[in-house]
């Protein structure tokens, strides 16, 4: 089965940033939400669009980079699924 992976923890680690710094750079949501989303050992099953937008905006403020969805989300296709359909 294909999957979508949340890469926020990896993104922060690769740039030497913390969840605290991201929470401070954001206008919303609550810092506890960001800490939960940035945990290495926990991948959320869903993130609402306003929260995702706030994360992207916060990362843009923090890094000065042009942040894209693919910076925090990764689509991992099920390689075997294509073979079964043939």
How many domains make up the coordinates? 1
The ordered H/E elements are EHHHHHEH
Helix content: 40-55%
Q: How large is the radius of gyration? A: 15 Å
Report the end-to-end length measured between terminal Cα atoms: 16 Å
Number of strands: 2
Average predicted local confidence, pLDDT: 89
Structural class: mainly alpha
Compute the number of helices.
Answer: 6
Brief write-up:
This protein has 86 residues and is mainly alpha-helical.
Q: Could you describe the 3D structure shown?
A:
- The relative contact order is 0.23.
- This protein is mostly helical and about 90 residues long.
- A two-stranded antiparallel sheet has the order 1-2.
- Helix 2 crosses helix 3 (about 30-35) and helix 2 (about 20-25) packs across helix 4.
- It has one domain (about 5-85).
- The chain contains six helices and two strands, in the order E-H-H-H-H-H-E-H.
- It comes from Deinococcus radiopugnans ATCC 19172.
- This is ArsR family transcriptional regulator.
């Amino acid at each position: 089965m294909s999957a979508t992976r949340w890469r926020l923890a990896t993104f922060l680690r690769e740039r030497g940033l913390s969840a605290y710094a991201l929470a401070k750079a954001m206008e919303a949501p609550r810092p506890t939400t960001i800490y939960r989303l940035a945990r290495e050992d926990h991948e959320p099953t869903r993130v609402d669009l306003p929260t995702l937008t706030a994360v992207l905006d916060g990362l843009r403020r923090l890094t000065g980079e042009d942040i894209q969805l693919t910076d925090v989300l990764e689509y991992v296709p099920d390689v075997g699924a294509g073979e079964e359909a043939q």
